[in-house]
Each structure stands twice: as structure tokens, then as C-alpha cells.
Amino acid sequence: MTSTLKNVHTLYVDQDVRDFDTVQPILDHFKGVPCHIVDGPTPVFRRVASAKDPISAAKEILYLTRNKGAFVRKCPGTREYTCCGYQILHIGTFCTMDCSYCVLQAYFHPPVLQFFVNHRELFDELDQVLDSRNPEIRRIGTGEFTDSMIWEPWSGLSHKLVERFGRQDHAVLELKSKTVNIRGLDQLDHNRKTIMAWSVNTPEIIATQERNTAPLQARLAAAAKCEAWGYPLAFHFDPMVIYPGCEQDYVKVVEQIFEHVSPENVAWISLGTFRFMPDLKAIIETRFENSKIVYGEFVPGLDNKMRYFKPLRIKLFQAMAAALKKHAPQTTAYFCMEDEEVWRKSFQITPDLPALLDHSAQRVCGIL
Amino acid sequence: MHTPFEIYWISLDSIDSRDLDFQVSSEKDDSALKRSVESLGLINPPLVQEKGGGMHRIISGFRRVAVCRSLDMRRIQAMIVDPLTPHQECAMLAVAENAGQRELGLLEMSRALALIGPGIPWQDRVSMIMDALFLDEAPNQRYMEQVESLCSMAPEIQAGVEDATIAFPVALKLQAMAPGEALAFAEVFRRLGLSLGKQREILTLVKEIAARDDLSCKDVLESAEISAFLEDKDRDLNLKSREVREFLKQRRFPHITKAQEAFETEVQGLNLPKGVRLEPPAHFEGQVYELKFSFKNVNDLIKNHNVIIEVAEKPGLRKILDR
User: Taking CA atoms, which of A247, B17, B139, B178 is between 20 and 30 Å from B230?
Assistant: First the structure.
């Protein structure tokens, strides 16, 4: 069962934003939930940090505030591995779902489920970015520091973004999710400039590592609906987890995807195996006692994150490359944060990745 | 607190040596004390308290009483504490008597702490601890509580800490495990006599193998391979320790170990010139290899100027680099 803020039991609202027109509809939605007006984030941080399990606690406390920094920012890739040149639209942080491998557990200290409500500033900045037609900003997504769709339907932000992107032809918006919160998307003038994307995994991993997320079948059914509504699609196999029989399971997911949707509507498929900051290991061991994912054969990567031993990654990627070639030969597939050797041994190419993806967005979404 | 006591001659038969409530000392070798009592007599009388029925319990001096018994003495002088002296005061006396004689070992410290104000809030207890242990500054609460927990651990773990085959931080980890699991580790650690780092390494490897393979740690530690290493009488401890750790690493990281072994075999096949080493990228993750050779002076370096070409022309090198 997807968890989309149903479990929120406390609201905090920054004094600065209490009168914003974006706030009242949210308060109406959470009528009956205790709400505190605060002068800055400190009381929220204290409340979360004082909990026995701050990560679980943070999933139940919603903080409405202003994003004081940039809304559009470059994805924090590292130079040691090939980066896709993605741009993040920073709408909020953290997530209500609970995946064992989630980097956000260790990324924020403490994690806070915050939603930025200064949408006027967000859209002003977005207008500038889109109007500038910066060739380096062709792909923008909201699903980096949070799940794109957990904030629906009460925020309405994604719907506004879909329509904003539909009125231009320079860049695409990618909404990435593990939910099936797609209600209302059929009513929007998206103009194929929004890619509806799902993180996918094997049923085994979804069942054991992705608490409160939608099952694979539900995600694929939602993707099929979005395709029927004319949206381009994307799928992210990330993180892929290596376990006995994983290759067959992942290949089967590829087959299932293309039983639901047509390859020509898929803008891209990304592949990335599980990697983690060393601090995350203890968090997973504590919060997910039955999880085995940290007991794979990991080595320190060049970016200081733990990664599967390279030959194991390559073996899995080669199986995926073959499956993708069979089922969707024209669809762009790429690696998230892998080096030239992995590209060469799996896909036999070492591309200019940002250009490859921009080209794919041009082909599938019609950006100019 | 000032506890009155008087010195009397009492029969050794009136001392209940099975009453260990106040025992702090854990030293086993009494031969030096025995020699001293034999030649000089009992200089420091033990501290005892009447416990009814004409019997006495020992507050301090368990070893002295034992030595006197072993020397077939009938009566000894003892400092007798008022029978109405509260238990906690006797405990303080027991700790102070021991701490005043010598630096307490970890297990002795644990017993001492367990005697001083158990169940009393730390802020009330800390001054009692400082008094009994002759401390100038308040000790760290968390560390003291960890030390105190030692005397309630399984006897095998206590013995391991006492003979330094189980490091105290490792003992704390064992305490958090199911008893069967902890004892399996204790058994291996006591037999191998490892450093703290190596104990931690084994602990992590075994726990992760067990978690991954749905086994208990005991299953992993009692595997035929580890048992064979431990039982082998021809191997010394260092070799046994290395083999156990290598076996566990191999089991925990089978592909990585295999790749390392294959690389080493292939490099050996290159027959590199003497003193030249080829090293793979760290963890085989990057793509940069290192060729290393050593030289003492410029002439030595000039003599080696062909090393790179010589290595580059080795037929097996390409296979290694294209792995």
C-alpha cells in the first residue's frame, strides 16, 4: 500500500509562509492534525532528533516552509563516474515511503519531511530557466531528494508543473515515483513535455526492501495509463540488488514493462546497482533487521561510496543490456554513475551521456 | 559513614567461605601470599561480619582466609564488623579494602561497581563510587556501567576478558547476543588469542555471513573448516588465526577473493624482473594499475631503465589489463 502522507500526525508551518495561498489548502487537507506555527526549523529538527528512531519519526511530521536556496540545481554527481547532467527541481525533501536502501536516511541530519510552499518563487525561477533556453538544462526532475508524487493530490504542484512544461519546448520534466498517484494527470495539457517515470525493482526486492510502496504490477499499470494519456515514460532500475537469481528476476521485469507499454514511448531506462555511503550500513542494519542487502560483495568506490565488486555489476548489466536489446532495441538505456569500463563492457559504447539523453528527449518528447 | 569494628581471634570453621556476596578479588595464584603467611603469619586480618548462628561472612580477605585454611590453621585474627552494619556499608568497605591494596583489574572493578549502590540513580551513586575507589574525579557514567555489566556476563566471557583473550569492547558486543552465539565466539577467541582488531574483524565477518546465509553465528564458527584449523596441533596460533580469518574473508567475499587470487596467479606468470611489482586498481574498481620497482641510487635507476618496456612486452600483460 503506497503511503502518501496519510500517516502525518503533526504539522509544522513556518511563520514566514503561514499566509501563502499555497498553505491553506494543505491545512484544510490535514484538518484535525495538530499544527504548530514555528519561527524557523529548529523546533522541527529537535522534535525529529529527539525521537527514538528519527528516520521513522520524520516520516510522520510535515514541515511547510520556504525554499531559501535555488529551486533548480545540478544533480550532485561525482567526476569519477559518468554523470547524466540532470537538473533537480527542489520541491521538498524526504519521503513517506520507507525503502531500506534509501540514501535520504543518511543524507539529511536529521531528515525532515519538508514541502516548500513558496511556489511563486519556484515558478519565477523556473520561468527564467526555461526562457533562457540554456542548452545544459534540458532535463529537470523533482524526484531526487524526495518522491515526485507523494505530495499529490493535496499539493497540486506536479499538476501545475506539468502544465508549465507543456507550454514550452526546450526541456522536459521528469516526475519519478514509486507510487501510483496519477489521478488527474489525464486532464492536463502536458504536450508530451512531462515524462512519467517509475523506479522499478524485482517483486522480491519491492516486497522485502520497499515498505509502503506500490507493487510492481500497480506501477506498470499506472505507467500504461499514463502512456494512454499521451505521456512519455521512463523507468529506473535503481538500485539493482544482487542476490541469487537476480538476473532472471530483473530480466523478467524488463519483459513485464514491455508487456504494459510500448518501447517508442519510453524516453529512457536507467540502470544502477545499489551503492551507499558507509554510514548507511548501520542505519539499514538497525532499521531493517531482516534486510540482507548490505551483505553483498561491496568495495569502496572512487567516490567513497560502497559499490558491488565491479565484475558483479558488469555481469548483471550485461544480462540487462541483452534483455533491453531484445525488447526495446531503440530505447535509450543508460547507467547512473558508472565508469567507462562498465559502459564499454556492458553496452559496447562510451557515450556523451547528457547528449544521448537530450537526444532521446528530443526524439520521444519533441523538445527542440 | 564510619563503621566500627574490633579485632578478635575466631575459628576458621566459623567463616563461611561460600558466601561470596562481597568478593571483589579475582586473583588466582595464592602462592606468594601463602609463603608470606607461612613465614610471617597473617599480618592483615580479614574483615568479617557476624551473620548469625555463630558464623561469619567475609567482607574482605577471601584469599587470606583460603590460604590460612590451606595451611591448616584453626584460628585467625579477624576484624569483626558490627552485625548491624548495613549491607551497603559492608560493600563499600569491601571495595575500599581491595582498591586500597592494588589497582583493580577490569573484572574486579566490575564486581566492585556492582557492589556500590546498585539501583541507585547515578548522581547519588557517583560519590559513593569515588569514595570507595579513592577517585579524585567523577568517572564516566557510560563506561562505568559498561564495566559493571562485565560481572553479569557468561563466565566464559568473563574468563576471556580476565585472561585478555577477549577484548572488553568485544565482550560488550558478545553480551548483546543470544547466549549460544556469544559463547561460540568466546570459544574461538579464547583459543586464538587475537588482537582487538582481529576479534572485531572475525565478529563482523561471521555476523555478516550468518545474516546473508540464514545461519546462526554458531553454525559459521563451528563449521568443519574452522574446527579443522582450531584442532590442528601442527599449526601455531598465528597461523591458525590467519587461516581462520582468510577462510572467513573468502566465504564472505567469494568473488573478490577469487579475483585477487587470479590476479596474483597471472602476475606470477609474467615472471616480472626481480623487485618489480604490478598492482591492480584498488579493489579492482578504478582502471589505473601501478608498476613499482625500487632503486637505491641514480646508477641503480639507470640500470633499471628498461623495466617498463620489458614489462609492457610481457605476453600475459594484455590479458591482465583486459580482464
Answer: B178
User: Using CB atoms and an 8 Å cut-off, which of residues 60-119 of chain A contact chain B?
Assistant: 80
Q: Kindly provide the ipTM of the predicted complex, given to two decimals.
A: 0.89
Beta-carbon contacts of residue B24 (< 8 Å; ≥ 6 apart): B60, B94, B95, B98, B104, B108, B111, B112, B115
Decide if B212 touches A, using CB distance below 8 A.
yes
Q: What is the DSSP letter of B284?
A: G
If we measure between CA atoms, which residue out of B37, B105, B87 comes closest to residue B65?
A: B37
3-state secondary structure B255-270: HHHHHHHHHHHHHHHH
What backbone phi and psi angles, to 5 degrees, belong to B10? -135, 160
Q: Does A262 touch chain B (CB under 8 A)?
A: no
Name chain B contacts of A311, Cβ cutoff 8 Å: 255, 259, 284
Domains parsed from chain B with CATH numbers: 5-150 (3.90.1530.10), 155-252 (no CATH), 270-321 (no CATH)
B254 interfaces chain A, CB cutoff of 8 Å: yes
Q: Which domain holds residue A164?
A: 77-110+135-365
Whether A297 is in a domain gets the answer yes
Unique residue bearing C-alpha cell 568479617? B48
Residue B291 pairs in a beta bridge with B278
pTM: 0.87
Of the residues B217, B285, B323, the best mutation for testing chain A's interface (the one with the most A CB atoms within 10 Å of its CB) is B285
Cell numbers that stand for B153 in this block: 556476563
Within 8 A of B284 by CB-CB distance, chain A residues are 299, 309-311
Closest to A83 (Cα-Cα) out of A74, A92, A91: A74
Contact A312 B284 (CB under 8 A): no
Who among B209, B212, B259 is closest to A311 (CB)? Answer: B259
